[in-house]
Amino acid sequence: MSEHKPSAVASKAFGAVLSGSGSAAECNALETAHPTARSPTSDHLPVTWFRRAVVPRLRDEAAFTLAELVLSVGVLVLLVLLTTQLLNSAATIMTLGHRQMNADSAARELFDRMAIDFAQMVKRSDVYYYLKSSTTASDCTLCTRQRGNDQIAFYSTVPGWSALTGAQQSPVSIIGYRIHVSPDTFSNRMERLGEALVWNGATSDTRGDGRPASVIFWATLNPWANATNTPFDVISPEVFRFEYYYLLKNGDLSSTPWYTISSVRGMQDVSAIIVDIAVIDPKSRVLLSNSDITALAEDLADYSRQPPGGLLAGWRTFLNGNTSLPRPALSSVRFYERSFYLSPTGL
Q: Which pLDDT does position 138 carry in this prediction?
């Protein structure tokens, strides 16, 4: 009897079936070519067994069960939730960071402007000042203990607004800082007064508010009385609390600009003016009414001989314990302090 040699097609189909990748067509081809073929691994298992048992089992194992699909969907939902939480946390951190940067920028711009004005302050014994003090003085008749937000005004050799032009205009201006408090839209915002003056005292010359222009060394300095809004600028709308005190040349911190006699005398006893401010960003401000901000500014204590940094620490302690105002708004309030050293006094 001659030896039967399988065809090339049958061999290929048989190998595919053994490897587990054979299709139904290949199994049919193998069975047609050799109906009585035996598996090389067993003398009793025909190819028909591979077709009826192995191939269907391989097909069943290639599909996902319902439990596997439920588990996969659950894991996917969990990953989506975790990713959402991470994105929300990142957005919150970025928002707080932007608010911090806005507050820092507002404080830096205000302090830079103050540094220029203080550096060019006219410090002479024959000029007047508008300062805070526990007592009045002959050259500061309006010096008083200022409760809440402070005010300051002085002469400085910086440009200022003026309705007058020509040779009569001097290089000296009245410079002032205060928090604007009124029912209008500019309430609880830091404003700066910058009004240029003239050298002569002729009554035909008038200032922006219609009053006679004065010689800078004559009239008592009262920049806030009957002044129009023309020389005023809202220099920092984020600042709602303004407090300052003095570093005297003897090393003391004081709310009075002298330590010898009750006289300013051209600030000759003052080494530096220390300014403390409270800042709130615009998005947090909308959570508070003007009356809320006014009350909050009044609740932040005045300077009373605290050590350096002590005033801001007290403000922060009060803010942390406040439960009457929205916490998101209070958490966005920032405090800043800077010392402005004065140039030598020229008497």
A: 81
Q: For residue 149, which of 53, 242, 40, 55 has the smallest C-alpha distance?
A: 242
* pLDDT (0 to 100) of residue 132: 92
Closest to 192 in 3D by CA, of 205, 210, 180, 176: 176
Q: Report how far apart, in Å, the C-alpha atoms of 69 and of each of 58, 77, 79 are.
A: 19, 12, 15
Task: Determine the pLDDT at residue 210.
Answer: 58
Beta carbons of 151 and 178 less than 8 angstroms apart? yes
- The structure's pTM equals 0.69
Of 60, 273, 302, 271, which Cα lies nearest the Cα of 152?
Answer: 273
Q: How far apart are CA 207 and CA 209, in angstroms?
A: 5
* Lowest mean per-residue pLDDT among 88-92, 172-176, 209-213, 266-270: 209-213
Residues β-bridged to residue 340: 273
Q: pLDDT tens digit string along 308-331?
A: 899 999 999 999 999 999 988 898
Element housing 70 (H / E): helix 66-119
CA distances from 247 to 123, 136, 263 (A): 16, 19, 16
N- to C-terminal Cα separation, the chain:
137
In angstroms, the Cα distances linking 343 to 122, 124, 146 are: 10, 12, 25
Phi/psi for 49 (5° steps) reads -65, -40
What average pLDDT does this structure show over 143-169?
82
What is the identity of the amino acid at 150?
D
Cα 331 to Cα 149, 222, 236, distances in angstroms:
21, 37, 20
The H-assigned helical ranges of 204-342 are 282-285, 290-299, 310-321, 327-330
C-alpha span between 63 and 68 (Å, rounded): 10
- CA 300 – CA 302 distance, rounded (Å): 7
pLDDT digits 0-9 by tens, 279-317:
998 888 889 999 999 999 999 999 999 998 999 999 999
Q: Is the pLDDT of residue 186 over 70?
A: yes
d(Cα 155, Cα 125) in Å, to the nearest integer? 12
Locus of tokens 């003090």:
133
Are 344 and 118 in contact by the 8 Å Cβ rule? The answer is: no
